[in-house]
Amino acid sequence: MKLFLKPERFWTEIGRIDGSAIPYVFRRTLVFGLIALVVTFLHIHPAFPNLAIPMAPYEVLGVALGALLVLRTNAGYERWWEGRKLWGGIVNQSRNLVIQALSYGPDDPDWRRRIVGWTAAFAHASRRSLRDQRHLPELDNLVGTVKAQRIASAEHMPTAVALAIGQLLREGAERGMDRFAFVRAEEERAKLIDHIGGCERILKTPLPEAYSIEIRQFIFVFLVALPFGILLKVDWLTPLVTMMVAFPILALDEIGVELQNPFSTLRLNHLPLDKICENLEQNLMSLLDDLDRSRPIENEGPAAAAAAGHEAGSPHDVGNVHQAGPRDGQAEP
């Protein structure tokens, strides 16, 4: 039953630290635990008055705080998911562009190699640009070291790569590329710019700072005041209970912050852009290799298919072919 498939992931993630928010919020949790310890000591010490207050106000504040944290986390996840959809568009448009170029472009191996290389280079340049990186070692094998350096020195690397793709498409049109295919390929190239523009919108437009400030001020007030509301119920366990409450609250707050930038490797659960670009490059290069090795099946006529079958046939099949041929002394039609 599917209900019992892969139960080990639950148990391994319980104790997992790498990839979680624990390293980010552990010290903050300890700070609120120390505050709770001080409050508990003052409450129990006979020299100080009773510091406990009714719990009801904290329950109401907790509900409000939970709603704010959910909104913050949802906003961060929406940005993360939008970034993933945009990169899915980059992958799809790159594949479509290469398929159209190889299917309808000039029958020139050099032109095909260049259009595939530059299209694969677009994803790598976009990834580096979103991470504010200027080193492009992946482009050396795709377009050459000199051109890779020129792209790295461009003001906007993805646009420079898209310009090179546009120039190759124009060259293909001048050399006999189907006009309708040229228009469709240009549309795919334009969509690549749209997708990288959407990624840059996410990167350069964080959540409003005032929104973050208010939520964190609310968190601070709530967690500092929490020990006063639980003193009568848990006594010396107040610091421990406070930290148990503080940890998920601080973790949700940090996750909402980390998801704002899904492209940086310094963020929690960033998009696997390295793997996406590597897979895309392999996909595009495999199309070029397949085209170089053999013609598409739909272009093979009956004669070619018969020849292929003759070459791959068994000795018995070959004998049958000879027996079906003209007899000695007879002329072929």
At a glance:
This protein has 333 residues and is an all-alpha fold. 74% of the residues lie in helices and 0% in strands.
Which secondary structure elements does this structure contain, and how are they paired or packed?
Blueprint (H helix, E strand, L loop, with lengths): L7 H7 L7 H23 L11 H49 L4 H22 L8 H5 L1 H8 L4 H18 L4 H26 L4 H26 L3 H21 L14 H21 L8 H11 L2 H9 L10
Task: Walk me through what this model shows.
- With 333 residues, this protein is mainly alpha-helical.
- The protein has 2 domains: 22-51 and 210-251, no CATH class; 55-207 and 260-291, no CATH class.
- The protein has helices spanning 8-14, 22-44, 56-104, 109-130, 139-143, 145-152, 157-174, 179-204, 209-234, 238-258, 273-293, 302-312, 315-323.
- The longest helix is centred in the N-terminal third of the chain and has 49 residues, at 56-104.
- The radius of gyration is 32 Å and the shape is rod-shaped.
What is the helix fraction of residues, given as a range? Answer: over 70%
Give the mean pLDDT.
Answer: 81
CA radius of gyration is 32 Å
The total strand number stands at 0
Q: What is the terminal separation in angstroms?
A: 67 Å
Low-confidence stretches: 1-5, 302-333
> Biggest sheet, in brief?
none
Order of helices and strands: HHHHHHHHHHHHH
Please indicate the count of domains: 2
Q: How large is the share of residues in beta strands?
A: under 5%
- Supply the helix-strand structural class: mainly alpha
Q: What's the overall geometry?
A: rod-shaped
Q: Count every helix, treating DSSP H or I runs of 4 or more residues as helices.
A: 13
